[in-house]
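Section 3.1: Structural characterization of target chains.
Under the original work plan, the team committed to producing a structural model for every single-chain target entering the pipeline before any wet-lab resources were allocated. The record below documents one such target. The sequence was received from the expression subgroup and is listed exactly as submitted; it comprises 234 residues.
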Amino acid sequence: MSQLTCTSLSLGYEGKEILSNLSFSVEAGDYVCILGENGSGKTTLMRTILGLHKPMKGSISTGDGLNRREIGYLPQQNSIQRDFPATVREIVISGFQGQCGFRPFYTREQKRRADENIELMGISHLKNRCYRELSGGQQQRVLLARALCATRKMLFLDEPVAGLDPKVTQEMYALIEKLNKELGITIIMISHDIRAAIQFSNKILHIGSEIFFGSRDEYIKRTASEWEGNYGNL
Protein backbone atom coordinates (compact mmCIF):
# COMPACT_ATOMS: atom_id res chain seq x y z
CA MET A 1 0.00 0.00 0.00
CA SER A 2 1.23 3.48 -0.85
CA GLN A 3 2.06 5.89 1.95
CA LEU A 4 1.22 8.91 -0.21
CA THR A 5 -0.79 9.21 -3.42
CA CYS A 6 -1.41 12.35 -5.49
CA THR A 7 -4.03 11.99 -8.22
CA SER A 8 -4.64 14.44 -11.09
CA LEU A 9 -3.29 17.27 -8.97
CA SER A 10 -3.34 20.88 -10.19
CA LEU A 11 -1.66 23.65 -8.18
CA GLY A 12 -1.50 27.42 -8.42
CA TYR A 13 -2.11 30.82 -6.87
CA GLU A 14 -4.95 33.32 -7.32
CA GLY A 15 -6.53 31.22 -10.02
CA LYS A 16 -3.31 30.89 -12.04
CA GLU A 17 -2.32 27.27 -12.58
CA ILE A 18 1.41 26.50 -12.34
CA LEU A 19 1.27 22.70 -12.26
CA SER A 20 -1.42 20.48 -13.73
CA ASN A 21 -2.54 16.86 -13.91
CA LEU A 22 0.20 15.49 -11.63
CA SER A 23 -0.17 11.92 -10.41
CA PHE A 24 2.33 9.84 -8.45
CA SER A 25 2.57 7.56 -5.44
CA VAL A 26 5.23 6.99 -2.79
CA GLU A 27 5.84 3.71 -0.99
CA ALA A 28 7.22 3.22 2.50
CA GLY A 29 11.02 3.44 2.46
CA ASP A 30 11.25 5.32 -0.84
CA TYR A 31 13.81 8.08 -1.36
CA VAL A 32 12.20 10.48 -3.84
CA CYS A 33 13.97 13.52 -5.28
CA ILE A 34 11.89 16.31 -6.80
CA LEU A 35 13.74 18.15 -9.56
CA GLY A 36 12.79 21.10 -11.76
CA GLU A 37 13.48 24.71 -12.59
CA ASN A 38 12.80 27.58 -10.19
CA GLY A 39 9.12 28.45 -10.23
CA SER A 40 8.04 25.06 -11.54
CA GLY A 41 5.98 24.36 -8.42
CA LYS A 42 8.22 22.07 -6.35
CA THR A 43 7.84 23.88 -3.01
CA THR A 44 4.16 24.58 -3.71
CA LEU A 45 3.64 20.85 -4.23
CA MET A 46 5.33 20.01 -0.95
CA ARG A 47 3.36 22.63 0.97
CA THR A 48 0.12 21.44 -0.62
CA ILE A 49 0.76 17.87 0.47
CA LEU A 50 1.38 19.18 3.99
CA GLY A 51 -1.99 20.94 3.92
CA LEU A 52 -0.52 24.47 3.90
CA HIS A 53 -2.05 25.18 0.46
CA LYS A 54 -5.22 23.89 -1.15
CA PRO A 55 -4.97 22.13 -4.51
CA MET A 56 -6.93 23.65 -7.38
CA LYS A 57 -7.92 20.19 -8.58
CA GLY A 58 -7.23 16.59 -7.75
CA SER A 59 -6.72 14.70 -4.53
CA ILE A 60 -4.04 13.76 -1.99
CA SER A 61 -4.40 10.67 0.14
CA THR A 62 -2.26 8.81 2.66
CA GLY A 63 -2.13 5.13 3.52
CA ASP A 64 -0.09 2.49 5.31
CA GLY A 65 -0.90 4.15 8.65
CA LEU A 66 0.50 7.57 7.70
CA ASN A 67 -1.28 10.72 8.89
CA ARG A 68 -0.33 13.97 7.13
CA ARG A 69 0.28 15.54 10.56
CA GLU A 70 3.01 12.93 11.08
CA ILE A 71 5.13 14.14 8.16
CA GLY A 72 8.33 15.85 9.28
CA TYR A 73 9.20 19.00 7.34
CA LEU A 74 12.52 20.76 6.88
CA PRO A 75 11.77 23.98 4.93
CA GLN A 76 14.26 26.35 3.37
CA GLN A 77 15.68 28.71 5.99
CA ASN A 78 15.51 32.48 5.82
CA SER A 79 17.71 35.03 7.61
CA ILE A 80 15.18 35.53 10.43
CA GLN A 81 15.03 31.81 11.19
CA ARG A 82 18.83 31.55 11.22
CA ASP A 83 18.94 34.23 13.91
CA PHE A 84 16.37 32.60 16.20
CA PRO A 85 17.38 33.14 19.89
CA ALA A 86 16.73 29.71 21.43
CA THR A 87 18.86 26.77 22.52
CA VAL A 88 19.40 23.76 20.30
CA ARG A 89 17.32 21.56 22.62
CA GLU A 90 14.47 24.07 22.67
CA ILE A 91 14.42 24.15 18.87
CA VAL A 92 14.50 20.37 18.55
CA ILE A 93 11.80 19.59 21.11
CA SER A 94 9.50 22.16 19.54
CA GLY A 95 9.00 19.59 16.78
CA PHE A 96 6.47 17.95 19.11
CA GLN A 97 4.24 21.02 19.33
CA GLY A 98 1.79 19.65 16.81
CA GLN A 99 1.24 16.62 19.05
CA CYS A 100 0.74 18.49 22.32
CA GLY A 101 -2.76 19.83 21.69
CA PHE A 102 -3.81 21.93 24.67
CA ARG A 103 -1.19 20.34 26.92
CA PRO A 104 1.30 23.13 27.89
CA PHE A 105 4.27 20.83 28.48
CA TYR A 106 6.26 18.06 26.84
CA THR A 107 6.04 14.49 28.11
CA ARG A 108 8.96 12.51 29.47
CA GLU A 109 8.87 10.35 26.34
CA GLN A 110 9.01 13.42 24.08
CA LYS A 111 11.99 14.79 25.98
CA ARG A 112 13.72 11.42 25.66
CA ARG A 113 13.07 11.28 21.92
CA ALA A 114 14.30 14.86 21.44
CA ASP A 115 17.59 13.96 23.14
CA GLU A 116 17.75 10.78 21.04
CA ASN A 117 17.35 12.77 17.82
CA ILE A 118 19.97 15.27 18.95
CA GLU A 119 22.39 12.39 19.49
CA LEU A 120 21.44 10.82 16.15
CA MET A 121 22.40 14.07 14.40
CA GLY A 122 25.75 14.18 16.23
CA ILE A 123 25.05 17.48 18.01
CA SER A 124 24.76 16.41 21.67
CA HIS A 125 27.68 18.69 22.52
CA LEU A 126 25.68 21.64 21.15
CA LYS A 127 22.32 21.07 22.84
CA ASN A 128 22.68 23.95 25.30
CA ARG A 129 24.17 26.35 22.73
CA CYS A 130 22.17 29.19 21.23
CA TYR A 131 20.93 28.23 17.77
CA ARG A 132 21.96 31.50 16.13
CA GLU A 133 25.59 30.97 17.19
CA LEU A 134 25.88 27.79 15.10
CA SER A 135 27.26 27.31 11.61
CA GLY A 136 24.91 26.68 8.69
CA GLY A 137 25.63 22.96 8.71
CA GLN A 138 25.04 22.69 12.45
CA GLN A 139 21.77 24.58 12.12
CA GLN A 140 20.58 22.16 9.44
CA ARG A 141 21.34 19.22 11.74
CA VAL A 142 19.28 20.92 14.47
CA LEU A 143 16.34 21.42 12.11
CA LEU A 144 16.60 17.84 10.87
CA ALA A 145 16.49 16.62 14.48
CA ARG A 146 13.43 18.82 15.00
CA ALA A 147 11.72 17.36 11.93
CA LEU A 148 12.39 13.85 13.26
CA CYS A 149 10.43 14.71 16.41
CA ALA A 150 7.33 15.00 14.22
CA THR A 151 7.76 11.64 12.48
CA ARG A 152 9.25 8.19 12.27
CA LYS A 153 7.68 7.59 8.86
CA MET A 154 8.18 10.38 6.29
CA LEU A 155 10.38 13.47 5.93
CA PHE A 156 9.95 16.36 3.48
CA LEU A 157 13.20 18.23 2.84
CA ASP A 158 13.25 21.47 0.82
CA GLU A 159 16.78 22.12 -0.49
CA PRO A 160 18.43 20.84 2.73
CA VAL A 161 22.00 21.56 1.54
CA ALA A 162 21.42 25.04 0.08
CA GLY A 163 24.27 27.37 1.03
CA LEU A 164 26.42 24.65 2.60
CA ASP A 165 30.03 24.03 1.60
CA PRO A 166 30.90 20.77 -0.22
CA LYS A 167 32.17 18.91 2.88
CA VAL A 168 29.12 19.78 4.97
CA THR A 169 26.86 19.01 2.00
CA GLN A 170 28.23 15.46 1.80
CA GLU A 171 27.82 15.04 5.56
CA MET A 172 24.18 16.13 5.31
CA TYR A 173 23.51 13.75 2.43
CA ALA A 174 25.07 10.93 4.45
CA LEU A 175 22.79 11.70 7.42
CA ILE A 176 19.70 11.71 5.21
CA GLU A 177 20.75 8.42 3.60
CA LYS A 178 21.22 6.91 7.07
CA LEU A 179 17.68 7.91 8.06
CA ASN A 180 16.36 6.25 4.92
CA LYS A 181 18.46 3.09 4.86
CA GLU A 182 18.83 2.34 8.57
CA LEU A 183 15.63 3.74 10.07
CA GLY A 184 13.38 3.14 7.06
CA ILE A 185 12.10 6.72 6.94
CA THR A 186 10.60 7.71 3.60
CA ILE A 187 12.43 10.74 2.17
CA ILE A 188 10.93 13.27 -0.26
CA MET A 189 13.54 15.91 -1.08
CA ILE A 190 13.48 18.97 -3.33
CA SER A 191 16.88 19.46 -4.93
CA HIS A 192 18.72 21.22 -7.74
CA ASP A 193 21.58 18.71 -7.39
CA ILE A 194 20.91 16.19 -10.16
CA ARG A 195 24.06 14.22 -9.40
CA ALA A 196 22.98 13.72 -5.76
CA ALA A 197 19.48 12.77 -6.89
CA ILE A 198 20.95 10.08 -9.12
CA GLN A 199 23.28 8.88 -6.36
CA PHE A 200 20.87 8.66 -3.44
CA SER A 201 17.26 8.41 -4.58
CA ASN A 202 15.39 5.38 -5.87
CA LYS A 203 12.65 7.48 -7.53
CA ILE A 204 12.64 10.86 -9.24
CA LEU A 205 9.85 13.34 -9.89
CA HIS A 206 10.89 15.92 -12.49
CA ILE A 207 8.55 18.88 -12.88
CA GLY A 208 8.74 21.11 -15.91
CA SER A 209 7.21 21.48 -19.38
CA GLU A 210 6.94 17.69 -19.19
CA ILE A 211 6.46 15.71 -15.99
CA PHE A 212 8.43 12.56 -15.27
CA PHE A 213 7.92 10.20 -12.35
CA GLY A 214 9.67 6.88 -12.17
CA SER A 215 12.70 4.99 -10.97
CA ARG A 216 16.21 6.44 -10.94
CA ASP A 217 17.26 4.00 -13.68
CA GLU A 218 14.33 5.05 -15.87
CA TYR A 219 15.29 8.69 -15.39
CA ILE A 220 18.91 8.00 -16.34
CA LYS A 221 17.80 6.21 -19.52
CA ARG A 222 15.42 9.02 -20.41
CA THR A 223 18.13 11.67 -20.00
CA ALA A 224 21.08 9.53 -21.17
CA SER A 225 22.33 11.96 -23.82
CA GLU A 226 22.37 14.87 -21.35
CA TRP A 227 24.25 12.83 -18.77
CA GLU A 228 26.85 11.65 -21.27
CA GLY A 229 27.37 15.18 -22.52
CA ASN A 230 27.60 16.92 -19.17
CA TYR A 231 28.74 14.34 -16.64
CA GLY A 232 30.22 11.34 -18.43
CA ASN A 233 29.64 7.87 -17.06
CA LEU A 234 28.05 7.68 -13.62
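The longest strand covers residues 2-13.
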